[in-house]
């Protein structure tokens, strides 16, 4: 993509001028240090944002609290109407926002546009949901009594997000939180801060046009220290945090100390099982896309391939051939399959992992390496690698956020493969490639995959909005997006109404005066 075209797109998002600050609605302010955002695509400075000081933070929370008292009284379908307008605006701005995601984060343009599409999809989902948000009614044991439950708005939702989905994760949370009557304060990743400024501009204009309080959507900028303002803050009943397991363990403890609620979406160590009954063609496409898409920087990226010994050589050779076709380069150029890693620290982690797997006895089938020269000036482009490994290797047990795929052999029945697949601390996404009904059903059964996502004949990445998204074990147990994930954004109340002139007590207790 030409630079001038990209600049025009950035202008459309109004993020051209540097030094954007903390924001409540459309007001931008801030007194903290500047955070520079460099593109991993070409190493150039895109812009700077002002980090949020404690004083700035207090202003934001005040504004959010004030907005909540109004917003919770707006009927849910009318809140849905605001989310509908937001979704429409995203449709209009899909191309420039997708380009910004691709340029600031480094994923391919197709994936950047896909991320904005996810935002649009969750808005549509939330609009429909705004006419539901239903509780149950139940029969009371007492005569002349009615019992039911209802869901009320919770308050401020604090959103802490990771760099790799710099816009979608926010919208998965906000679209639902807004229709639930909550207000949101977002701390985006310090590695992709301009994406959050662009999103804030879009929603702030919609709130203004509708004469709604600006504090319904707020952003704060900065690193983990700004995140800690939120996790320690009793005024925020729900913290939704997406990121590494290391971060999640700290956030969970901090929020639990004040008995707050947390929704955790943490790291994965996702595997595809390839059984003797697999369709090889779709298995290879699923594995390659899962391993190298977004340069291996998806929480659902395929990290491990667990292959039956009878298929092992064939799968291995086909994969090695497939990797030779991969084009690595500028992600805004649609001819390329693999873009850069987010920064040079990520490159170091990738190099360390490759060193470590060899030290532990692994065998590199496709050697990696950092690319240098024209087009690779940012120093963030690496070659996708494949290593033969054992599940017990320490490095295999760990999520390396880079395009490294480990091949693991299994023998005997599918149960053996499932045991390997479950033999990690993470529990996000999993898949089996098989045309055998018994194998597929075993994998999906209670004794099968222990992950939050379990797929048959598709890869580990690329979840749809309609289902609840999240994982078990050290992935954190949170669920976002579809199904009934909205319930965490509301508080549940059970109501019992007596429409008689008597006061019968529950459990048959007598209390006569
Ligand atoms: P990270 O943990 O380094 O940072 C994530 C966010 O947490 C950032 O905004 C950061 O500033 C903040 N943070 C860090 N420490 C904090 C603390 N102590 N208190 C408050 N906030 C804190 O993660 P990253 O490198 O940006 O993202 C990659 C990780 O995110 C991977 O592990 C990936 O699997 C995971 N991820 C998970 C999902 C999911 O849905 N399960 C989705 C995307 C990414």
Q: How would you characterize the overall build of this protein?
A:
Homotetramer. One of its GO terms (molecular function) is aldehyde dehydrogenase (NAD+) activity. Keywords: NAD, Oxidoreductase. The strands form six sheets. The protein has a seven-stranded mixed sheet with strand order 2-1-9-8-7-10-11, sandwiched between helices. It starts with a helix and ends in a 15-residue tail after the last strand. The chain folds into two domains: 3-266 and 476-493, Aldehyde Dehydrogenase, Chain A, domain 1, CATH 3.40.605; 270-469, Aldehyde Dehydrogenase, Chain A, domain 2 (3-Layer(aba) Sandwich). Helix 1 packs across helix 4, helix 4 crosses helix 5 and helix 5 (109-129) runs parallel beside helix 6. The longest helix is centred in the first third of the chain and has 21 residues, at 109-129. The protein has helices at residues 3-12, 54-71, 76-92, 94-105, 109-129, 168-179, 193-209, 224-231, 245-257, 280-292, 309-324, 344-359, 394-397, 414-422, 437-444, and strands at 22-24, 27-29, 34-38, 45-50, 137-138, 145-153, 156-160, 183-187, 217-220, 238-242, 261-265, 270-274, 302-308, 363-366, 385-388, 404-410, 426-427, 429-433, 453-456, 468-469, 472-473, 480-481, 490-498. Helices cover 38% and strands 20% of the residues. The structure holds nicotinamide-adenine-dinucleotide (NAD). Nicotinamide-adenine-dinucleotide is lined by residues 160-165, 187, 189-190, 223-224, 227-228, 231, 242-244, 247, 250-251, 265-268, 299, 399, 401, 428, 471, 475.
């Amino acid at each position: 993509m030409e630079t001038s075209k990209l600049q025009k797109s950035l202008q459309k998002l109004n993020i051209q001028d540097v030094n954007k600050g903390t924001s409540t609605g459309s007001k931008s302010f801030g007194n903290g240090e500047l955070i520079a955002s460099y593109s991993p695509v070409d190493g150039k400075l895109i812009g700077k944002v002002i980090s949020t000081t404690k004083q700035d933070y207090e202003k934001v929370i005040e504004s959010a609290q004030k907005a909540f008292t109004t917003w919770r009284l707006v009927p849910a379908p009318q809140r849905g109407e605001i989310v509908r307008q937001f979704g429409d605006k995203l449709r209009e701005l899909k191309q420039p926002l997708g380009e910004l995601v691709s340029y600031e984060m480094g994923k391919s343009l197709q994936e950047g546009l896909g991320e904005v599409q996810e935002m649009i999809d969750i808005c549509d989902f939330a609009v429909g949901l705004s006419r539901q948000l239903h509780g149950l009614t139940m029969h009371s044991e007492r005569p002349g009594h009615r019992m039911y439950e209802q869901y009320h708005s919770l308050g401020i939702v604090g959103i802490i997000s990771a760099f790799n989905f710099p816009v979608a994760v926010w919208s998965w949370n906000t679209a639902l939180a807004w229709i639930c009557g909550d207000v949101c304060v977002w701390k985006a990743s310090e590695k992709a801060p301009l994406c959050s400024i662009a999103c804030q501009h879009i929603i702030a204009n919609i709130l203004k046009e509708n004469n709604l309080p600006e504090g319904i959507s707020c952003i704060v900028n900065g690193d983990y220290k700004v995140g800690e303002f939120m996790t320690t803050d009793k005024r925020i009943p729900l913290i939704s945090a997406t990121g590494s397991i290391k971060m999640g363990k700290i956030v969970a403890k901090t929020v639990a100390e004040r008995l707050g609620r947390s929704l955790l979406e943490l790291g994965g160590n996702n595997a595809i099982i390839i059984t003797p009954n697999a369709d090889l063609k779709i298995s290879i496409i699923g594995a390659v896309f899962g391993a190298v898409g977004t340069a291996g920087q998806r929480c659902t990226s395929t990290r491990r391939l667990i292959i039956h010994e009878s298929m092992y050589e064939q799968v291995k050779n086909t994969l090695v051939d497939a990797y030779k076709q991969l084009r690595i380069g500028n992600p805004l150029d649609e001819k390329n399959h693999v873009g850069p890693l987010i920064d040079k620290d990520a490159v170091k982690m990738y190099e360390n992992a490759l060193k470590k797997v060899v030290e532990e006895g692994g065998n590199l089938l496709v050697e990696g390496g950092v690319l240098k020269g024209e087009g690779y000036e940012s120093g963030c482009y690496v070659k996708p690698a494949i290593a033969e490994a054992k599940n017990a290797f320490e490095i295999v047990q760990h999520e390396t956020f880079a395009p490294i795929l480990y091949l693991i052999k299994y023998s005997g029945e599918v149960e053996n493969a499932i045991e390997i697949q479950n033999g990690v601390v993470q529990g996000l996404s999993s898949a089996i490639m098989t045309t055998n009904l018994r194998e597929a059903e075993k994998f999906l059964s209670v004794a099968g995959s222990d992950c939050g996502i379990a797929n048959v004949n598709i890869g580990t990445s690329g979840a749809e909005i309609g289902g609840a998204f999240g994982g078990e074990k050290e992935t954190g147990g949170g669920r976002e997006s579809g199904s009934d994930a909205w319930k965490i954004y509301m508080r549940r109340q059970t109501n019992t109404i007596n429409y008689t002139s008597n006061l019968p007590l529950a459990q048959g207790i007598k209390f006569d005066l």
